Amino acid sequence: MSTLRQADVDPHPAQPLRVRSVVGLAYDEIRSLIVAGTLEPGSRLAQGVLADSLGISRGSVREALRRLAGDGLVDFEVNRGFFVAESGLDDVRQRLEARLALEPEIARLAATRCNDDDLELMRESIAAESAATTS
Question: What is the pTM of this model?
């Protein structure tokens, strides 16, 4: 009896599915609303309203908004909340280009300096994120 191999099933195997986190999906959705102009510059981003409209938790929305703030698309004001940034798309493009220039080097340095404990902690974090659910 022969063993069934992937090549026997499909000569053009599909790529593995890429699972996106809820936060990543929220980031993409809110980002697209901002870039499309649906959410106007200066408008307040109410976490509860966004959470309800996206069907996810406020915590996931908050984390997506923090990421968007890092990209320069959203401003955060203490005790006031998140707002669509007033800056133009050229400012955002420049920030993203700077990140593109810096982050690969940062990742390379982190990779060369990590040890077995760091790798185990990273694996545990990835497993916890994969197993996480949003209420």
Answer: 0.55
pLDDT, one tens digit per residue, over 65-121 is 999 998 888 999 999 999 999 866 677 778 788 888 889 999 899 889 989 998 899
26-63: string of b/e by CB count within 10 Å (b at 16+)? bbebbbeebeeeebeeeeebebeebbeebebbeebbbb
The correct answer on CATH 3.40.50.150 for the domain covering 20-131 is no
Q: What is the Cα–Cα distance from 98 to 50, expressed in whole angstroms?
A: 29
Are the CB atoms for 40 and 83 separated by under 8 Å?
A: no
Distance, C-alpha 94 to centroid of its chain? 19
